[in-house]
Automatic annotation (TrEMBL):
<feature type="domain" description="N-acetyltransferase">
    <location>
        <begin position="31"/>
        <end position="66"/>
    </location>
</feature>
<protein>
    <recommendedName>
        <fullName>N-acetyltransferase domain-containing protein</fullName>
    </recommendedName>
</protein>
<dbReference type="InterPro" id="IPR016181">
    <property type="entry name" value="Acyl_CoA_acyltransferase"/>
</dbReference>
<dbReference type="Pfam" id="PF00583">
    <property type="entry name" value="Acetyltransf_1"/>
</dbReference>
<dbReference type="InterPro" id="IPR000182">
    <property type="entry name" value="GNAT_dom"/>
</dbReference>
<dbReference type="GO" id="GO:0016747">
    <property type="term" value="F:acyltransferase activity, transferring groups other than amino-acyl groups"/>
</dbReference>
Amino acid sequence: MLTSKTIIGLVYLASSKNDKGPSANSQLSMGIIIDSEHQKKGYARRAITLALNRAFKSFHCHCVQAIIVNPFAPEIYPAYKAFVAVTVDHWFSH
């Protein structure tokens, strides 16, 4: 059972080396890790959505990127699908 203090993973936004931080016209990189016990429960999609909202609405950045190495590997493909689904939804809803 999850409580408000249960840690199930990590999501981050980081500015690029050439950027002076989260500000107008900035570019951010995003990453996410969800513990295997909590995968396939929608947590990654929710975390990605919250991070994108924060990036675009609070930090006013113009681009968020994520690099997914070997996206079609069986253990990576669910994460790839989550990123694609959320980013497409986010793109067409704004």
